[in-house]
Structures are given as C-alpha cells and as structure tokens.
Amino acid sequence: MAKGHRSKIKRERNAVKDTRPSAKLSYARVPVQKACFVLDAIRGKNVDEALGILMYSPRYASSVIKKLVESAVANAENNNNLDPSYLYIAECYASDGPIMKRIKPRAQGRAYRIEKRMSHITVILDER
C-alpha cells in the first residue's frame, strides 16, 4: 500500500512527464481489432521500415496509421530536435472509442443493430 494521501500520490505520479515524441488520433473510423493487425506489424521497427510496411499494406487502417507515424516523426523533428533516421516505434496501441449505432431493417418488421466502431490510436517514438 502506498504511503501518503491520494492527492499527493496522484500529484507525484503526474509530475513525471513522458518526453518521447508521439501522435494520437482520436475517433478513427477503424475498429480496434483491425487497427491492431497493422500496429502489431510495425511495433518495434525503425520509422523508415514501418512506413514501408504501411505503404504496401492492403488494409484501410494502414493508410490512417501511416499519416499518424508521419505526424509523430514531424513532432520529433520540430519539438524535440531529433534525427528521424535514429527513431523507432517504441509503443503503438489502439483503445476503444465510441460506437455509432445504426438500424438495418429486416423481414417482418424486425430491425437489426449495426455497430460502427471507432478507436483512439496512439504512436510513441523513441531514439536508438
């Protein structure tokens, strides 16, 4: 059990900032499961290698994630003054976003629900 008051513990935990360059896309119209197929393929790879994989991947999520990786590289260059040739994808993950619910009419007056899922995708780079 941690010592101290809850607010003090939270304050100490939030004081430590992650300075690694990153990019986040909220409300991407890609289900988490489909985004994770692409994210698993690029995790731990160099940025150039990851962009090559994303460019030739046939999945829709790869085009969305490619833009996100390029944005993270631009953040690393402009904000942290890092050289893009030494960067690799340290972390990348997708978490659930809201679900758009739609109705599909079916036979005999019934209605089936269609769930169009969204995700929040995060890419964090680091230097080797």
Automatic annotation (TrEMBL):
User: NCBIfam families, alphabetically?
Assistant: rplV_bact
Return one Gene Ontology term, BP aspect: translation
UniProt-annotated stretches for the region Disordered = 1-20
Assigned protein family: Belongs to the universal ribosomal protein uL22 family.
Q: What is the lineage of its organism?
A: Bacteria, Bacillati, Bacillota, Clostridia, Lachnospirales
Task: Read off the Pfam families from this record.
Answer: Ribosomal_L22
Please report the organism this UniProt entry assigns to the protein.
Lachnoanaerobaculum saburreum F0468
Q: What is this protein called?
A: Large ribosomal subunit protein uL22
An example GO CC term for this entry is: cytosolic large ribosomal subunit
Q: HAMAP family of this UniProt entry?
A: Ribosomal_uL22_B
